[in-house]
Inverse folding.
């Protein structure tokens, strides 16, 4: 995943309230949820690939 794809995925995840922040610790990128729990980005991205995030946003937009 390049930096543009990360930015797009992170912004979508943030819009969906899945993450609130990111931080690099010892060279590992972590994302944080609203409860302050950290998850490595690679793990989060495996669970929520860019295509899935895009579909989730599209579903939310069509429901409103």
């Amino acid at each position: 995943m390049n930096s543009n794809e990360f930015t797009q995925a992170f912004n979508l995840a943030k819009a969906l309230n899945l993450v609130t922040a990111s931080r690099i610790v010892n060279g590992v990128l972590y994302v944080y949820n609203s409860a302050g729990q950290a998850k490595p980005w690679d793990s989060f991205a495996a669970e929520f690939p860019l295509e899935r995030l895009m579909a989730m946003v599209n579903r939310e937009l069509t429901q409103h």
About this structure: The helical segments are 3-15, 41-47, 50-63. The longest strand covers residues 21-25. The chain has a mean pLDDT of 95.
